[in-house]
Amino acid sequence: MTDRVLVAYTSKIAATDEIAEIIGTELAGCGLRVTVLSVAAAHTLHGFGAVIMGDAAARDAHRFVRRHKASLKHTPMWLFHRGAPPVPNDVTRMVRRLGAIGPVSFGGAAPDWDRAQAWARYLADQLTVLHRGFASN
Questions:
Q1: Nearest alpha carbon to residue 100 among 8, 1, 2, 33
Q2: Which of 7, 47, 53, 114 has its CA 20 to 30 A from that of 39?
Q3: Organism's domain of life (predicted)?
Q4: Domains by residue range for the chain, with CATH
Q5: What is the pLDDT of residues 92-104, one digit of tens each?
Q6: Residue 13 CB neighbours (<10 A)
Q7: pTM of the model
């Protein structure tokens, strides 16, 4: 398994890209190789050992999941979103269908940057345990 992690986000949701960058920076600081891309720019999942995606409720995210359905069945996946609970029903179905974890919410009107950083460090620990082959820098 590879230590490469894709942090994919929808570009239309305000602050989701900033949250994705924070998560990517924290994961990289924990020794993981991270690529942060909009879901529209993520053309392949080849070579990625995990996917972290936000905002799963957006139409682009649903297209991403359909496009990469076969790969996502075998790739650990976590979801996040900027909005406040409750989670939309279509996202709940996506979580069940893919076996994804989440989604974790990072606030309503103002994103909770500290929570995003803490969650990314938690993910780094989870990924290290899940894929013992991950290299640390």
A1: 8
A2: 114
A3: Bacteria
A4: 4-56+76-128 (3.40.50.360)
A5: 888 888 889 888 8
A6: 18
A7: 0.88
